[in-house]
Amino acid sequence: MREASDEDLMARVATADAAAFRTLCDRHAARAAGFARRFLGDAQDAEDIAQEALLRVWRAAPRWRPTAAFGTWLYRIVVNLCLNHRRKARFLPLDGTEEAADPAPDALARMERREDDLGLWAAVADLPERQRAAILLTYWEGLSNARVADILGTSVPGVETLLVRARRSLRGRLGPHQNGG
Hints:
Blueprint: H1 6-13, H2 18-40, H3 43-60, H4 70-88, H5 107-126, H6 129-140, H7 145-152, H8 156-174
């Protein structure tokens, strides 16, 4: 028996089918929260964003029309909620939150990698919001430029421009010691 598509499930959710909604949540909640966590840098806020996005899916289900893939529509909701959240609450990073070094033989290498990762995340977090969304959707979520364009409400060349500008900014901030990955 074939598994129901997201679009089929949305048709059922539109009739208040809680089981279909749970199936959609099971399929998409973790990815929505993961994207929001990478975008916002805050796990608790990301969970709240993902829950709010899914609540909006439930509420909008009767009006939903499959003009785009369900996943594209959900990402668009999550991106918009993340953008709204960033506009509302600017937070300062906590100082002194480093974890203790691991005493394993390769602890130094892991610490250096962590510093590089923190530098990368800080650089990504400092990108303008649309560039950050394009980078995260493309490289961390693995979405095509066409799908990212649908999510961000722009064209494929627009996404490519956002990516070029974001990569240029990241290279300028990270310098030659980063591998651009």
